[in-house]
Amino acid sequence: MVAEKGLPVRFWMRDAARAEQVNTERCNPRYMPDYPLSENLEATSDLKYALQGAEVVFISIPSHAFRSVLRQAVEWLRPEQLLISTTKGIEMESFSLMSEIITAEIPGARIGVLSGPNLAKEIARRQLAATVIASQDEALRTRIQQLLHSPYFRVYASTDTYGVELGGTLKNIYAIAAGMSAALGMGENTKSMLMTRALAEMSRFAVSMGANPMTFLGLAGVGDLIVTCMSPLSRNYRVGYALGQGKTLDEAVSALGEVAEGVNTLRQVRDKAAELDIYMPLVSGLYEVVFTGAPVSEVARNMMVNVQSSDVEFVLPRHECAVTGTEKTEVP
Question: CA 110 to CA 103: how far, in whole Å?
């Protein structure tokens, strides 16, 4: 998207042969075979070459490898560069978000988080979409809005980095549940209940981590949750659908060809919720189905007899509600 604006872009890949293939065929045959890449984009397996002279570095590395790749890159990164994480996940060993890993590995770095309902194949077809750039750095937010904004892609801004990051991470769990319910033929009422209660759990957990619950009413929260829970293009949805068809977790992951982030996130969030005593019945129930083989019908029945709680937990008093303009938070 940036290269199509006429700006030079370097695309780092681990595999030199694949990088050469991208440069020769002008597409990424493994993931986007039908999407022609701009001549301004150059693939390379040389990390030093990829980073040198770059104004902005988008870090799109699976969460399990995020820290190790960042450590490889540190010696070639400069303090003035903008580091933007697009990874939706949590590091298993430390329960760290990607922005926290960047902070730990590169103190003082200028950090942003990009998240939203952004299915890559739809964006490649230039279907209308929007995203959120979150950072405490106003200049960074403005620059990323300028870089990514286009007639088909709108970029909103937020200062709630953790909220935006957690929204993109937690929704992967509930996409597995949505795919499972679809495979089982559950109705529209069930899907609606699933997504709204998922939103309640997400915001409840995020608040315990220091995020603003209102962030979850935006693109990075409910927006990303909806698209991930409703689209068969979502990797996590497809894993859930396979599980709903009676396949094991190993079979579901094998059919997908890669591990969906939601599988690892489910285990991590379930353990953290237990540690912090956060009420997350959907996460607990889904964990039993995915990792212990518990029957879906039995888990669902148990969830329906749980003690009922409030519909909306985070309610602002009327005098605290205010309408804020968007002139300074989005590209017109």
Answer: 9
> Using CA of residue 135, residue 159, residue 218, residue 102, what is the dihedral sign?
positive
pTM: 0.87
Which residues are CB-contacts of 159 (< 8 A; sequence separation ≥ 6)?
Answer: 134, 135, 136
In one-letter notation, the amino acid at residue 268 is: Q
List the beta bridge partners of residue 155. 131
Whether residue 171 lies in the annotated active site? yes
> How many angstroms separate the CA atoms of 39 and 150, rounded?
18
Tell me if residue 189 falls in helix, strand or coil. Answer: helix
- Does residue 257 come out as left (phi exceeding 0), alpha (psi in the -120 to 50 range) or beta? left
**Spatial separation of the C-alpha atoms in residues 61 and 288, rounded to whole Å:** 29
Report the greatest alpha carbon distance in the chain: 61
Structure tokens at 210: 């220091």
* Catalytic position from the list 88, 121, 171, 272: 171
Per-10-residue mean pLDDT of the chain, 332 residues long, equals 96 96 94 93 97 96 93 96 94 93 96 95 94 97 97 96 94 91 88 90 90 93 92 86 88 75 89 92 91 80 64 59 49 46
